[in-house]
Specification:
Length: 153
Amino acid sequence: MNQDALHRLEDVLDREIDAARLLAATLNEERTALTGDSPDAVQQPSAQKVRLLEAIESLEKERRALSVAAGQDPAAKDPAAASTIATAVAERWRALMELMARCRAANEVNGYIIHLRQGQVRQLIDIVRGGPALTYSPQGKTFARALRALARA
């Protein structure tokens, strides 16, 4: 791999790592907003997350093109090909993969929080509409019990 291609690849990986760090921070902001009581607070981190994911995808396409053009790919399954990649590129690649794994885990936690909140909202809507409310027996089992509607249209 020539030095110019190596430097361009390192630059793209550095920008990808920066974007992944911003994504991790944004996912933390999103989690904080999701556990708070203001639905409006979720909009900004969620929009930022989408923009960062698009940027990372664009940088990844650029990285792949540079890797293919240079005949190298840090994601290659072939150990012989991977061994020819500069150490700096390999280290950046590992750092990026670790960051993205943490981002994936944080995003899954946020998705779980969203799922729980959706269930809570459904239960509240059912109560307001007069549907059966979900309650718990002394043994901890759930059952539906009919309640009077809080409001009638």
